[in-house]
Amino acid sequence: MTIDVVALLRSLLLNSAVWLLTPGPALAGESSITESQANRPQVDGPPVDPPRTDTLQSGIESYRNGDFHTARSAFEAALAASPDDPVITFNLALTRYRLGDYAAAQAGFRQLRSQPDMRAIADYHLGLIAAQTGDLPTARALLGSVAAEPDRIGDLARAALGRVAPHRAPKRIRAYVMAGLGYDTNRTRLARSVELSGRDPEAAYSDLVAAALAPLPWRGEYDLRATLFRRDYETDDALDQSALQLSLRKTWRPAEWRLGAALETESILLRDMSLVQSTGVGLEAEHGLGPGILRLRYQPAHVRAEDDFDYLDGPRQRAMLAHDSVLAGMSVRLGWEYEQSDQADDLEADIVYGQAPHRHGPFVRLSRTLRPGLQATARAGLRNSRYDSDDGLMPDREDDLLQLGLALRLTIPGNVTLLVEYRFQDNQSNAPDYDYDRTTVLAGLEWRR
Fold first, then answer.
1. DSSP conformation letters of 344-386
2. Which of these, 447, 381, 388, 365, lies nearest to 413 by C-alpha position?
3. How far is CA 422 from CA 176, 187, 190, 384, 399, in A?
4. pLDDT, tens only, 336-366
5. How many CA atoms lie within 13 A of 68 on its CB side?
6. pTM for this model (two decimals)
7. Is residue 196 exposed (0-12), middle (13-18) or buried (19+ Cβ within 10 Å)?
8. Of these four, 17, 71, 169, 258, which has the most CB atoms within 10 Å of its CB?
9. List of residues 6+ apart from 66 with CB closer than 8 A
């Protein structure tokens, strides 16, 4: 049997209540679409695939029981099996909304919006999400466009417009902690052709990452973000690292854009004695592009360093261009990163290559739910780096760094995730002493709030 999905979604939506900007907000059509509802025959066709039915039904039951994390995993697994199914896309977007994952919910509704017959339904839900996130101009624009519809959806949009008043979504502190144990095969990035006695390049290590985002009670959308990182190698303290990042961010939402500006600072302690500090600004922009989201970031900063790392002093610029989308049931990010540093005008005599690199290259990140509660993420990147030579007889050093990564995350009760991560680097350089390869593996626990 084939399914008239557009008619089904419109019917479900138009017979649902709308309560906007109330505690525990509910979207129109919030009751998930069941397979039995979807199997209303229109014309003869093939039967529904049973595995998809089981996974979808499991998600619906979890959703109705208020277990939105499990529901999301089930809907993600169902979407992986049927990536073009708008019924699953609709349910998953609603579930993500209930979890407060507004960006992912927006991506789902934008994907539905690409179908002309579903544009009004998608715009209506996008308008509700905009209202919940405090983006009232966008909410009014989207709901206003739907209010012109002649049927019941127009009535719902007009009613929602009447409820849109100055409001911001409830503010809450978000937190993340990761603790793990790992093994590094080449922590010194020792060249393949070099063998040194003394410090062992291979070592076990422990990692600790803690991050928090706290909305500030100021007029407008401000937040304070902090990230702490600590790596401690087992064998010695020579390459231990500690880092603290702080940023104060302001966000604007004109029309369908999301713009951000931040004051940023980072302090890195190397060898437990040398400090490298950077201070700068971060500029960000996001905009819907087709069924996905275009992201831009620019970060100019000034770096100051002490002791053995004082040659790192100088300005630095970083930029990123990326596009997030959903393809064949996978979340896909394609991007390009760029960095330029004007550092180390006065180098010590024993430094042949100045630390003034120009770095750039593409990357791709793929994320997919393998089964409910189990997610895989793969990343690949190729970065070209050029270093200026301070010796007129030597050519500029140029490196090509291949980076590969794979992570598996298994969700367990209590907002805890079991993480297993593998990373590989292979650096090819026209200066043979800088050829190296490096592998790290990590197992840890993540907690989110």
1. -SS--TT--B-S--EEEEEEEEEEEEEETTEEEEEEEEEEEEE
2. 447
3. 20, 15, 20, 22, 22
4. 999 988 755 444 444 444 455 789 999 999 9
5. 14
6. 0.65
7. exposed
8. 71
9. none
